[in-house]
UniProtKB/TrEMBL annotation:
Keyword Cell wall biogenesis/degradation: no
Record protein name field: Parkin coregulated gene protein homolog
GO molecular function: Hsp70 protein binding; Hsp90 protein binding
Residue stretches spanning the membrane: 161-187
Coiled coil start-end: none
Keyword set, alphabetical order: Membrane, Transmembrane, Transmembrane helix
Transmembrane among keywords: yes
Protein species of origin: Glossina palpalis gambiensis
InterPro entries xref list: ARM-like (IPR011989), ARM-type_fold (IPR016024), Parkin_co-regulated_protein (IPR019399)
Length: 271
């Protein structure tokens, strides 16, 4: 018994090439990921957005700038040039700085560190450092109010702003009594941006870098060393948790040699 097969139209090579060309030129539809549309034909999953971790975050206006325009801040720039390792900052006070309410004024000065205007930022930095140096014993009670402005300045990802904030933090830790130990619970808020910029430095070998205070990687290294020196025995493990590439400047990684025994033969054993 013969079976009757339907007539199937055979496509020529030219027709196959035309169909493949039409299929290749068909517009592809971009669909979001993890949806049922991604299983459909002629679709492409939309790639994730790229995040620039080093992108600068611009802050519109700071409280220090607002209060300075209104005349609520009793300070102005003296116009002098700051010398290196000098304890006199180029600021002019209209009152005695020690008599100010540090719980009110010092957070405002630290908030001015994240300002985009260079002159206002320098005035806020020098004013905050002058207040800290004149009355170090007043820093510890106001320390919780300084964490948020410092965090805002470090999260701007602007190297100049970060350097200004880190220098203020160094001065607080070095001359403020018990400030280094009190800062340990706030390492998670402050040291995350430092982990990104820590390796941005210049390797000069045994040479001396005159611009060390202007390089973000070296300033971060000096800040972490100051936090470890003044933070007590629990400072290193907390710094290491936030900055895994940090090596201790107090406890060496390996021993250089064994201490020599004095008196008698060191290799002799009792019988």
């Amino acid at each position: 018994m013969e079976t009757i097969t339907p007539d199937v139209k055979q496509l020529t090579g030219k027709e196959c090439r035309e169909l493949l060309y039409v299929r290749s030129t068909r517009p592809v539809r971009v669909v979001p990921a993890f949806t049922y549309q991604a299983l459909q034909k002629n679709t492409v999953v939309e790639p994730p957005e790229k995040i620039d971790i080093f992108k600068k975050h611009v802050i519109a206006e700071t409280f220090f700038k607002i209060f300075l325009r209104r005349g609520d801040i009793p300070v102005a720039s003296s116009g002098k040039v700051l010398r290196k390792n000098s304890k006199e900052y180029p600021v002019k006070w209209y009152c005695t700085p020690q008599d100010l309410d540090y719980c009110y004024y010092l957070p405002i000065f630290v908030d001015g560190l994240s300002d985009n205007d260079v002159e206002i930022r320098k005035l806020a930095q020098y004013g905050a450092m002058d207040l800290i140096r004149r009355a170090p014993h007043k820093i510890l009670p106001v320390l919780p109010k300084l964490v948020l402005p410092l965090k805002r300045a470090l999260n701007t990802r602007n190297k100049k702003i970060m350097i200004a904030a880190l220098k203020v933090l160094q001065l607080m830790v070095l001359i403020g009594p018990c400030v280094g130990q009190a800062l340990i619970p706030y390492y998670r808020q402050l040291l995350s941006p430092c982990n990104l910029f820590k390796n941005i430095n210049v390797n000069l070998g045994q040479g001396i870098d005159p611009d060390r205070d202007r390089r973000i990687g070296d300033v971060i290294e000096d800040t972490l060393n100051a936090l470890e020196h003044c933070g007590g025995p629990n400072a290193f493990i907390n710094i290491k948790y936030m900055v895994p590439t940090y090596e201790s400047s107090i406890y060496p990684r390996c021993e250089t040699g064994q201490p020599k025994a004095t008196g008698g033969d060191a290799t002799s054993h009792p019988r």
